[in-house]
């Protein structure tokens, strides 16, 4: 079983649309499971028009709680908190949104009036779409520990893949370079970096490359909306050439892609003959070759 992760250092480059189309194309050849680890803004189910099968709450974060029956108002906890999560004058008040659950306040409190407890901070959702299963994480608004939720999503996706004897897990990763991205890359066999030809996208591409290189995971680049800015297109290709990264496919700007999303369908299903669909089929073929080389 192989795990492919699609990342984008910059948000809004069409990553989820690419994942949805690759999922549909690969599902015609392989038994597979999809995972959405963009837990701050999961939307792969929307692109696929998937139906929710099951949902459960996740407790992947810890917060401090005060027992005011024991609290003497010494405010030592406020002084030791490095996140400014404890306020108040005569009595401490914990701001849960910024509390990291580090436990410093519990060690400082002379009355043992503070306890660290697990709290529900997200959901794990299971969707059905055509002949694929989608495992998706969802961080609650204002929630923390998104990296932990990504770990939970990946473990569940692997469990579902083993149970169904799937040959592939295709993961829609989060944008940026933070903890969720690190958790998404961990254990992957190959990473596709989706980007677009703009200066901002190139800058963020360089940053996420450093994260992937830390894990020594092979990678390739998918250049979406490849014809919107020729100068940036050349700059990304030069960066790829200088670092020996393959350009797996160039996907042209195509109105069919947003039109397909508006109809809750991947473009390869809604408009199979569109220029973007043809480029995505090429990407699927090239990526399969890369994965087979790893075997």
Question: How would you sum up this structure, described in words?
Answer:
The chain has 295 residues and is an alpha/beta fold. The protein folds into 2 domains: 2-59 and 122-294, 3-Layer(aba) Sandwich (Rossmann fold); 61-119, Alpha-Beta Plaits (2-Layer Sandwich). The chain has 11 helices and 13 strands. The chain has helices spanning 15-27, 44-48, 76-80, 104-108, 146-163, 179-185, 199-214, 230-242, 256-262, 267-270, 275-294, and strands at 2-8, 32-36, 51-58, 61-66, 86-87, 93-94, 114-119, 122-129, 132-139, 168-175, 190-195, 219-224, 247-251. The strands form 3 sheets. Strands 3-8-9-2-10-1-11-12-13 form a 9-stranded mixed beta sheet, with helices on both faces. Strands 4-7 form a two-stranded antiparallel ribbon. Strands 5-6 form a two-stranded antiparallel ribbon. A hairpin with a 5-residue loop joins strand 5 (86-87) and strand 6. The longest helix has 20 residues, at 275-294. It is elongated, with a radius of gyration of 22 Å. The mean pLDDT is 94.
């Amino acid at each position: 079983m192989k795990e492919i992760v699609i990342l984008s250092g910059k948000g809004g480059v069409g990553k989820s649309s690419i994942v949805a189309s690759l999922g549909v194309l690969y599902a015609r050849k392989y038994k597979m499971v999809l995972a959405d680890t963009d837990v701050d803004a999961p939307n792969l189910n929307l692109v696929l028009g998937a139906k929710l099968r099951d949902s459960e709450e996740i407790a992947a974060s810890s917060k401090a709680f005060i027992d005011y029956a024991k609290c003497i108002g010494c405010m030592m906890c406020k002084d030791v908190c490095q996140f400014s999560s404890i306020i108040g004058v005569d009595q401490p008040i914990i701001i849960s949104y910024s509390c990291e659950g580090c436990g410093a306040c519990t060690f400082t409190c002379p009355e043992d009036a503070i306890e660290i407890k697990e709290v529900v901070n997200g959901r794990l959702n299971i969707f059905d779409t055509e002949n694929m299963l989608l495992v998706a994480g969802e961080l609650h608004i204002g929630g923390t520990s998104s990296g932990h939720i990504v770990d939970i999503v990946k473990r569940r996706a692997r469990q579902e893949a083993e149970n169904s004897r799937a040959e592939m897990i295709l993961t829609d990763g989060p944008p940026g370079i933070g903890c969720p991205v690190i958790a998404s890359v961990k254990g992957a066999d190959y990473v596709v970096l989706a980007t677009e030809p703009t200066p901002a996208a190139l800058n963020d591409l360089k940053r996420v490359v450093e994260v992937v290189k830390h894990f020594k995971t092979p990678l390739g680049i998918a250049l979406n909306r490849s014809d919107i800015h020729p100068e940036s297109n050349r700059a990304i290709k030069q960066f790829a050439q200088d670092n020996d990264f393959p350009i797996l496919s160039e996907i042209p700007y195509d109105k069919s892609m947003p039109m397909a999303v508006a109809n809750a369908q991947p473009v390869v299903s809604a408009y199979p003959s569109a220029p973007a669909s043809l480029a995505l089929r090429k990407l699927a073929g090239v990526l399969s070759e890369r994965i087979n080389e790893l075997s």
